[in-house]
Amino acid sequence: MATERLARIAASLKSFIQLDASSFRVADIHEGLESALTLLEAELRGRVKVVRDYGPVPSVGYYPAEMNQVFMNLLRNASQAIETSGTIRIATLVRDGAVEIRIEDDGRGIEPEEIEILFQPRLKTTGARVSASMGLFTSQNILKRHQGEILVESRPGKGSRFIVRFPTNLLESRESPLPDASVARR
Question: pTM here?
Answer without folding.
Answer: 0.80
